[in-house]
């Protein structure tokens, strides 16, 4: 497997770091031990994006009238962003990821250290106003960056198969991410060239198909950040919704799931995968999660939570979800307009029913594993049947 980085800016000296291994000895034999350049550690605040050039401002946000482009309550944040940019105008020119990282550091400081008054209002709108002011202070177009007040580093992992577009990656490039790790799973030269043209991307290229779930686990080992956002290359999700998920992880959640409840409608209209996911949550004591699961992209893990359940389990999302429930991780859900089960890719010629059968099988295996540990009834009491009267049976 080959690893390459495409990036702008010069945020300190980069250093090479070998991959932390595959998902197991068998996977290493297939994937190899690629290297990645420029891993960074130890940053207290971070961000990433695409410099505001990949998406026109008008397409990103319809800006309200006014000199700053923002309503009166937000002009203070815009002015603060403009003033923060002045601290960097006298030095080396900021560009690409470096500009976004610095902008997000200033926004984090303003939002978290400014007292209750500074933390009031809509954080998303205020952050966008601050980012626009910062961009204007650097004489760059605004309307594209989506800040998140982070005191921990954050990265994204995406598995790209043959024929995937770049829309999902463009949304990620608007976020304050340390890096975006793209695992090319059996993609061809045209796919590699298309992804390589994007700025600030770390590419891990596997010429053989390893599967999207295994690809996510490989990417998790490559990303060195405190928070890891797993996203889908085939179903773009707005950066604003992804930012809300990162904010919940920053607030202390160890696993943030995409809330798909609003897409399901009445129970009679649920598809089989949704019912299976809901049944697992109910059986393992979290009926409040409904059909939300780590088997659905996007979702966010904290690094300690991933290491607690074991990185290798990420290669089987239902097993990772079961482990998260059994470990009693702090799990929250965040609304996402478009999300789908991990591994349900449209590329590569896979029949539509094949991923569904695979997902159902993984969920059944996860439930079996839970039953082996907790008993056939998963510690749920049977308050209806008196099995003892029949002289046996499951208590």
From TrEMBL:
Any coiled-coil regions, as ranges: none
Transmembrane segments: none
Name of the molecule in the record: Glycosyltransferase
Low complexity bias (residue ranges): 26-37
Domain of life of the native organism: Bacteria
InterPro entries reported in the protein's UniProt record: Nucleotide-diphossugar_trans (IPR029044)
Region (Disordered): 1-74, 339-361
Biased composition (Gly residues): 1-11
């Amino acid at each position: 497997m080959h690893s390459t980085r495409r990036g702008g800016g010069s945020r300190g000296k980069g250093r090479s770091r070998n991959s932390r291994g595959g998902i197991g000895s068998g996977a290493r034999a297939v994937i190899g031990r690629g290297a990645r350049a420029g891993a960074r550690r130890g940053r207290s605040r971070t961000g990433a994006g695409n410099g505001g050039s990949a998406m026109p401002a008008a397409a990103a946000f319809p800006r309200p009238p006014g000199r700053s482009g923002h309503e009166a309550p937000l002009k203070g944040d815009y002015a603060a962003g403009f003033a923060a940019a002045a601290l960097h105008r006298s030095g080396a020119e900021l560009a690409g990821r470096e500009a976004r990282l610095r902008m997000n550091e200033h926004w984090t400081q303003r939002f978290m250290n400014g007292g209750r008054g500074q933390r009031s209002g809509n954080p998303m709108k205020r952050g966008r106003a601050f980012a626009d002011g910062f961009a204007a202070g650097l004489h760059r177009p605004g309307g594209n960056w989506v800040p998140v007040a982070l005191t921990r580093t954050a990265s994204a992992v995406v598995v790209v198969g043959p024929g995937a577009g770049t829309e999902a990656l463009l949304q990620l490039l608007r976020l304050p991410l340390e890096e975006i790790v793209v695992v090319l799973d059996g993609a061809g030269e045209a796919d590699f060239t298309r992804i390589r043209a994007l700025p600030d991307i770390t590419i891990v290229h596997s010429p053989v198909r390893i599967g999207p779930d295994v690809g996510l686990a490989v990417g998790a080992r490559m990303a060195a950040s405190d928070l890891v956002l797993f996203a889908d290359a085939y179903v773009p999700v707005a950066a604003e919704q992804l930012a809300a998920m990162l904010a919940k992880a920053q607030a202390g959640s160890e696993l943030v799931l995409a809330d798909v409840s609003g897409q399901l409608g009445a129970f009679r209209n649920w598809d089989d995968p949704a019912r299976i996911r809901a049944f697992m949550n109910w059986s393992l004591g979290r009926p409040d999660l409904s059909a939300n699961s780590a088997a659905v992209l996007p979702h966010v893990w904290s690094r300690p939570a991933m290491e607690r359940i074991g990185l290798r389990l990420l290669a089987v999302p239902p097993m990772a979800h079961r482990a998260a429930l059994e470990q009693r991780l702090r799990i929250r859900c965040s609304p996402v307009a478009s999300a789908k089960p991990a591994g349900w890719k449209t590329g590569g010629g896979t029949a539509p029913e094949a991923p569904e059968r695979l997902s159902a099988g993984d969920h059944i295996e996860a439930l079996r594993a839970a039953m082996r540990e907790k008993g056939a009834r998963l510690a749920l009491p049977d308050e209806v049947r008196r099995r003892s009267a029949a002289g046996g049976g499951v208590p």
